[in-house]
Amino acid sequence: MKKISIIIVSVAIITSFACKKPAEACFTYSPQVINTYTDIVFDASCSENASTYIWYFGNSEDGESSSEPTITHRFTSPGTYVVTLGIQKDGKKAGKDKLVIQKNITVQ
User: Fold this and answer.
1) What's the fold here for domain 28-107?
2) Mind listing the pLDDT tens digit for each residue in 4-36?
């Protein structure tokens, strides 16, 4: 009788995938008490995975786009303004949620 040997070779391929976090908009501003003609620093450093920041200050001006997370703005009239930050990742919208945040800013 002939003996037959069977050899089984198993190969495992391990792949590592970097799980990228989606972009998320966030910003702070200072000072907290704002008077007309006061320079206000808006800071979006808390935004995650953003490459472009687009700011709208609620005073009928076009949006201001920047690759830097901070921007300075001045309101010339008292009132409540809706400040909107939109972010993009690598020049493209990075999903549907959390790409825009709005805050009401009261100017005295």
Assistant:
1) Immunoglobulin-like (2.60.40)
2) 666 555 544 444 455 566 778 999 999 999 999
